[in-house]
Amino acid sequence: MIEFKNVSFSYEIDVPVLRDISFTIEKGESVGLIGANGAGKSSLLKVLLGLLPHDGEISVDGILLETKNLPELRRRMGFVLQNSDNQMFMPTVFDDMMFGPLNYGMSREEAERKVDSVLERLELQSLRDKYNHKISGGEKKMASIATVLAMDPEVIIMDEPSASLDPYNRRAVINLIRSLEQTKIIASHDLDMILDTADRVILLSGGRIAADGRCRDILTDRFLLEHNRMELPLRFSESY
């Protein structure tokens, strides 16, 4: 469904941020994207979304990532930002959830049905008419995911979805992510959260893929993680 072939990117000439990245993600996979600061995670997400130029080839459902195809590709991919305040910009949760469907050409009646359906499925009906500035950080994070789901994406891309959440809201967001059937790419430093939400992990280091495999295999490999400036998840730190 998503394919990177020899993808590279540089902010400056001769200072590569991504170096010859190649991988494939199949439909329905949940993939954790991990790595130390500066490894290239955020740049990879931005390249996939068409926000940064790249060398090499990227395709989604066989559609090549290039300027003329960006509108179609962005309809297929939903991006949940790390900071929900940068995503939730309308007065209420309902207004935010309506924004995308209406801009994609849905009638107001269709959009309202879609919004209510998503809120019901996620059991978030209580947030529908609340003002964004009056809900908690955890509620806003869940609302931001609901906002993306209202646009019916095939792929959901998340940047640090558990950042700055207390334990209760972090668990609520993890349970919400686990319930989603879409293909998911989850970039995070929270390796315990990745263990709970991803089947597979891609480890970036110095702009290259240092490892790509089963989530538990990579996240229990102390030598591999420490060699790439990371540590074991907390639940394994005393066992391995």
Question: Can you describe this structure?
Answer:
With 240 residues, this protein is α/β, with parallel strands linked by helices. 35% of the residues lie in helices and 26% in strands. It is built from 9 helices and 10 strands. It has helices at 41-48, 70-76, 93-103, 108-121, 137-149, 167-179, 191-197, 215-219, 222-227, and strands at residues 2-12, 15-25, 30-34, 55-60, 63-64, 77-80, 155-159, 183-187, 200-205, 208-214. Strand 7, helix 6 and strand 8 form a beta-alpha-beta unit. The longest helix has 14 residues, at 108-121. The protein is globular. It starts with a strand and ends in a 13-residue tail after the last helix.
Radius of gyration: 18 Å
Strand portion, in percent?
Answer: 25-35%
The major pleated sheet works out as:
6 strands, mixed
Uncertain residue ranges: none
Number of strands: 10
Tally the helices: 9
Tell me the overall shape.
globular
How would you name the oligomeric state of the polypeptide chains in this document? Answer: single chain
State the order of secondary-structure elements, H for helix, E for strand.
EEEHEEHEHHHEHEHEEHH
- Please give the order of strands in the largest beta sheet: 6-7-8-3-9-10
SS-based class: alpha/beta
Helix percent reads 25-40%
Mean pLDDT: 94
Alpha-carbon distance between the two ends: 35 Å
In short:
With 240 residues, this protein is an alpha/beta fold.
SSE map:
Layout: E1 2-12, E2 15-25, E3 30-34, H1 41-48, E4 55-60, E5 63-64, H2 70-76, E6 77-80, H3 93-103, H4 108-121, H5 137-149, E7 155-159, H6 167-179, E8 183-187, H7 191-197, E9 200-205, E10 208-214, H8 215-219, H9 222-227
